[in-house]
Amino acid sequence: xxxxxxxxxxxxxxxLALGACGTTGGTSNTPAASGGAAACGDYKIGMFGALTGPNxxxxxxxQNGVNLALDDYNKKHPDCKVTLENYDSQGxxxxxxxxxxxxxxxxxxxxxxxxxxxxxxxxxxxxxAEAGLVHITPSATNPALAENGWKTFFRxxxxxxxxxxxxxxxxxxxxxxxxxxxxxxxxxYGKGLADIVRQDLGSTVVGNDTIQQKQTxxxxxxxxxxxxxxxxxxxxxxxxxxxxxxxxxxxxxxKGTFVVADGVKDQSFIDNAQAAAEGTVITCPCVPADVxxxxxxxxxxxxxxxxxxxxxxxxxxxxxxxxxxxxGKDRATMVDFVxxxxxxxxxxxxxxxxxxxxxxxxxxAYKVEGGKxxxxxxxx
Length: 380
Known about the structure:
This protein is an alpha/beta fold. Helix content is 37%, strand content 17%. Strand 11 and strand 12 form a beta hairpin. The two termini are 13 Å apart. The relative contact order is 0.17.
């Protein structure tokens, strides 16, 4: 059953309803009147995430949403345009601190969309917090990120403290698995999510294992899973490892249900796993493309494809920052602006609690059917 969730606003969303950029005339290039913002035309927002490397697709989907928000804003403000600065982390936490410094040192950057992944967020966010640079992640889901007291941290989607229990519930109530094997990839994201699923499934878990990112031979794990008698496997990790893992499991004759999360919600998983991907269940705190039909149509017109994983969340994250720029906010005053934000976006009502977590949280289930990822509805 497809989700029937609807939103109060079409694509005439916040970015399209922005006011003037703090100028006193149509061609004025004077500083904004409030907040001490930089001169019009000098504003930037940053996109921080993997744009190359094995997980680049997820970053590109977000970047597409950001670019669409910028297009909408700049059409409304042709004399006060905002530009995008990309910080390609390749999803590698070791690159994150240097990229964070680069963003911080560019004083024209008034806010960051990202970081996209939990590991790089853990590495970069302390520097952002110290510098007072707002960062709104559209995709990093580790719950611990909100527990560090970072005043500049905001997240426009539910974290894994929501996704993990939802995945466990789906495994128990819909898949109706009685023996579940759990594997994680030892990453900040993958292990954190898998541990929550392990805790929620309790005695239903009949085996555990850990693999490594960039691993390609999963023979040892395949042996453990098949020997356990598991009728379902939950994998906490990303698509580059999920594809060969399930392919090798199917080649070994395992017939159980493969359950993964948002890190695998990408066409590359299907392309690489091929027929072995069929039937895979994917959970994600991301809305289906058809939930916001006007956004879907605008995205498809620009990119010739439907919005993908976290495209809408990327759009919403960028829109919040653009709303702040329209209100004349600079780096120092953007924090309080985002804290007080409360407007409908294309994915949900955008309002944050004291820790920077969005207050409107939903988790959806998807399934690979006929070589495509299709929504099967919200996990209540």
